[in-house]
Amino acid sequence: MTSSRRKSAYLSGLYDGSPFILVIVPFATLFGVLATEAGLNVLEALAFSVVVIAGAAQFTALQLMVEDAPTVIVLISALAVNLRMAMYSASLTPYIGAAPLWQRAICAYVTVDQSYVVGITKFERAPEMTVPQRVAYFIGAVTPVVPLWYAFTFVGALIGTRVPESWALDFAIPICFLAMIAPMFRTAAHVVAALVAVVVALLAAGVPYSLGLIVAGVAGMMAGAQTELWLERRGAAA
């Protein structure tokens, strides 16, 4: 019975994560193309996706490499963009933190924006799930994402600049992130954080080496946290 429940949870996660295929394919292909344009060969581009496996950080690093930014700036910026993974991990710990170490290691590696959004939404709506079921669901949700991220990074790197501009593969980036963040606007704090980050990002667009994005992210998190504290105090006073 336990095995059948894990299988059912895995298939449920696979189903819920499958819509991301529509954006992961062009997203990964675009990364492969841009990686070759930035001077990486096919194997280097593929290794980049396998090791880092974080689209936003990879695109940030590529952009800075194209701009001939110092290596330390490239590394710091990519790490800063990926700091959200630490927040994802902290958020997931109450749900899968009791899993065996090897399972947590796998979940840590495949914690990406898509698996986190699908997973945390499911876990919050289904508190009755056991830890093995949650792990199975989480792995299922990322199954349509990670292999395709590798495969189409490879495809994009192979075809390189032969992709016509009319294909407009870059449409996948905003669509992917819009699809992920829209369901997360559950409270006023989330909305405030997003709005502040957008405004600051626009104002700081001229900051060298795209560091304005880091400033915007920090400002958004601070605004969201302050909003949440203000709402809690207001609720307590009421």
UniProtKB/TrEMBL annotation:
Q: Where in the cell is it found?
A: Cell membrane
Q: Which GO CC annotations does the UniProt entry carry?
A: plasma membrane
State the membrane topology: Multi-pass membrane protein
Q: Which Pfam families match?
A: AzlC
Please tell me where this protein is predominantly located.
Answer: membrane
| Keywords of this entry | Cell membrane, Membrane, Transmembrane, Transmembrane helix, Transport
GO biological process annotation, one example = L-valine transmembrane transport
- Any transmembrane segments, and where? 20-40, 46-65, 72-91, 135-160, 167-185, 191-224
Concerning its family, UniProt says: Belongs to the AzlC family.
Q: Which PANTHER family match?
A: INNER MEMBRANE PROTEIN YGAZ
Protein name as annotated: AzlC family ABC transporter permease
